[in-house]
Structure formats: C-alpha cells, structure tokens
C-alpha cells in the first residue's frame, strides 16, 4: 500500500502542529509532521526509543541535553534513548519533517516538568 498525508491517520498536537502516521508497527514508527512558525514541543525523553528526524522543509532547532542544534532542509539528526530533548521552530516559516522512531515512542514519552 502506498502511504501519503492524503490517506494516513492524522492528529494535531501542541499549538496547531500536525502529524500524519505513515507507518506504525511494534518495531517502527514513521510520521510526517508540520510545525507553524514560532511553535515548539515540551522537553521530554524516551526510555527505549531512538528517534531520527529528517527535515523536509525549513529549519528546525533541536535542544538535546541542553545543547542547541539547528537542522536545515535536507539534513537529519538522531536522538538516542534517555536524551532530554525537544524540537522548536524558531523561524518565521512553517517546517515539515519526518520522525522515525525505533521502537515507536508513543507510549515511551516522559515529559520533564520545569
């Protein structure tokens, strides 16, 4: 089956951010996500899941273990389990990216209260 944003399960998160579930198995999750300008997610970590982000459009900023990593269109970044992190769109344009998690991170997300 061919998957795209047009035929995949969709949900919203955060402040008007979108996610399309392109693949979801017990060992792998692939999502395409979109974040409007000036949005970010909450600081969190995953105990088991490793995540790989690939930027399709725009420039994202990742905060991983209190370090800042700008990641541009066509670039990627990996986040190891137990790493405290969040993604932020600090630009004036929307960003779009793939997030690939092994295993899926849906039930493996621990938010950090600040």
From TrEMBL:
InterPro entries: Cupin_2, GPI/OXD, RmlC-like_jellyroll, RmlC_Cupin_sf. SUPFAM superfamilies: RmlC-like cupins. Residues 34-100 form the Cupin type-2 domain. This is Mannose-6-phosphate isomerase, cupin superfamily. Keywords: Isomerase, Metal-binding. The keyword Metal-binding applies. It comes from Chryseobacterium rhizoplanae. The lineage of its organism: Bacteria, Pseudomonadati, Bacteroidota, Flavobacteriia, Flavobacteriales. It comes from the Bacteria. Signal peptide: none annotated. Pfam families: Cupin_2. The keyword ATP-binding does not apply. GO terms for molecular function: isomerase activity; metal ion binding.
